[in-house]
Write a structure and sequence with these properties.
The complex is a heterodimer.
Chain A (H helix, E strand, L loop, with lengths): L3 E3 L3 E4 L5 E7 L5 E8 L3 E8 L6 E2 L6 E7 L2 E6 L8 E8 L10 E2 L3 E5 L1
Parallel strand pairs in A: 2-11
Antiparallel strand pairs in A: 1-3, 3-8, 4-5, 4-9, 5-6, 7-8, 9-10, 9-11
Chain B lengths: L3 E2 L4 E5 L4 E7 L6 E7 L6 E7 L4 E4 L2 E6 L4 E6 L8 E8 L9 E2 L3 E6 L1
Parallel strand pairs in B: 2-11
Antiparallel strand pairs in B: 1-3, 3-8, 4-5, 4-9, 6-7, 7-8, 9-10, 9-11
Classes of the chains: A mainly beta, B mainly beta.
């Protein structure tokens, strides 16, 4: 079974802090994604990566950066956390090539609260 | 402006009856549509998909209907079971590949009462 593991289930941070959200997948997937889920807005793509050291902006990259130094690990960084970044963050991975979008495997999510 | 909309934030259905979840989209370039299901404390999991060359796709109790002219799709669950209680997200993309970004709707919380 594919496993996508997010390091924290709940996280509470203060405004202005630097926040790291870590995600690890164990299926040697090329593609990794970070989404945020907000009530009524669904899932919105923040950043994604097709390969090590590669990153692409999604729909809402402002205020975020990412790092992919190893194939299995994709980190989301909030350089200076703000209250409007309070959200559920979901990491996902998928194979590359002709694989369709249903092969997107999600982690359980990290609920981040910024006070 | 949201390109994929699920106008009903919640839906309550009796066990054994049909559940119908609706989704509308505005981007005419979308040609691949998916439904994901999310239980509390878990990530979303893929449920069923349909490409724009079809108007119906069925998988067991789950059927997705696509009306391209109306830019509308719906998910039918028959019969509904208490284990179907979850949040359902509609998603769309331009193309099939994993590299094609998914645009998600806001989700509909389905509650199936025993």
């Amino acid at each position: 079974d594919v496993k996508v593991t997010q390091s924290s289930r709940y996280l509470v941070k203060r405004t202005g802090e630097k926040v790291f959200l870590e995600c690890v997948q164990d299926m040697d997937h090329e593609n990794m994604f970070w989404y945020r889920q907000d009530p009524g807005l669904g899932l919105r793509l923040i950043y994604f990566s097709y390969d090590v050291k590669m990153k692409e902006k999604g729909d809402i990259p402002e205020g975020y950066s990412v790092s992919r130094e190893k194939k299995e690990r994709f980190s989301l960084i909030l350089e200076s956390a703000s209250t409007n970044q309070t959200s559920m963050y979901l990491c996902a991975s998928s194979e590359s090539g002709h694989t369709t979008n249903e092969k997107l495997f999600f982690g359980s999510g990290t609920q981040l609260s910024v006070l | 402006d949201q390109q994929v909309k699920q106008n009903s934030p919640s839906l309550s259905v009796q066990e054994g009856r049909i559940s119908i979840l609706n989704c509308d989209y505005t981007n005419s370039m979308f040609d691949y549509f998916l439904w994901y299901k999310k239980y509390p404390a878990e990530g979303p999991t893929f449920l069923i998909s349909i490409s724009s060359i079809k108007d119906k796709n069925e998988d067991g109790r789950f059927t997705v209907f696509l009306n391209k002219s109306a830019k509308h799709l719906s998910l039918h669950i028959v019969p509904s079971q208490p284990g179907d209680s979850a949040v359902y997200f509609c998603a769309a993309s331009e193309g099939y590949g994993a590299g094609n970004m998914l645009t998600f709707g806001g989700g509909t919380r389905l509650m199936v009462k025993p």
